[in-house]
Amino acid sequence: MDLGIALPVTGPQANPEELVRVAQTAERAGLGAVWAYERLLRPAEPWMLGLEQVIPLPEESSSVYDPLETLAYLAARTSTIRLGTNVVDALFHPPVVLAKRLATLDRLSGGRLWAGLGQGWMKQEFEGVGVPVKRRGAGFAEHVEAMRACWGPDPVSFSGRFYTIPESGIGPKPVGLTLLGGAAAPVAVERVAALGMGLVTVVFDWDLLGQGVEAYRKAGGQGPLVIQVNGTIGDRPLDERAPLTGSAEQVAEDLARARALGADHVLWQPIGFDADGLVERIAKIITY
């Protein structure tokens, strides 16, 4: 198991120089991966699918660097650290287009791409790209299969309910691409397993995380398990804390539970970005 950090793709630190500095600092410190996520827009009245509660997004969500362009830029400035997406909303991109972009990034990085893909959850983003929300589920599964067809031997062709690719030569082909599915709900986790993808999931509670991982394994999932922590590592221990947060010593103890679940990678998505301090504290944990 290794450890990683989300990049500052939004907020005051989101600029080319800072992105390079964070990625290179993480690589020198021995971290396993840096990560970037996708956010297309910040609607005035955001909401989450399946919930009646309105979920406002932070103001900085109005400007988020595109994850694939960001990671391609960093592929040329790093040499060994993996580059991950947590996640790209696959349904917002035609399969043949996204397949080509992911394969290109994988080639440019020398096979270092871990591509986390999700279905999307915000109605306004679906509206913005002209894709119906009802395409979630079966449409996501077909999208992944269409991309895999693009990565197979030429001539490529695909015919499905939602997507069609005429017989064609399509390249480049990836050389080391690892596919992950972003999921938390049991049915979504089982779908990711059925698709033969690794799993990237956010930890809020140890019991819920354990149930999700168990559902993934029972459904046949054998790919990499990536745990995302929406929080950070501080200087002082906390009496009340979420999993994998608190002091470096507390987090190091928590990592034993993550290993027991079969985690291959843990990444921190800090709230209020402190790249230098977080990289330093993760590096400290690596030495334990």
UniProtKB/TrEMBL annotation:
InterPro entries reported in the protein's UniProt record:
Lucif-like_OxRdtase_Rv2161c, Luciferase-like_dom, Luciferase-like_sf, SsuD_RutA_monooxygenase
List the PANTHER family hit by this protein, alphabetically: ALKANESULFONATE MONOOXYGENASE, ALKANESULFONATE MONOOXYGENASE-RELATED
Full protein name: LLM class F420-dependent oxidoreductase
- Oxidoreductase is among the record's keywords: yes
Pfam annotation, one family: Bac_luciferase
UniProt entry keywords in alphabetical sequence: Flavoprotein, FMN, Monooxygenase, Oxidoreductase
- Note the NCBIfam families from the entry: F420_Rv2161c (TIGR03619)
UniProt entry tagged with the keyword Nucleus: no
Residue ranges of domain Luciferase-like in the record: 10-219
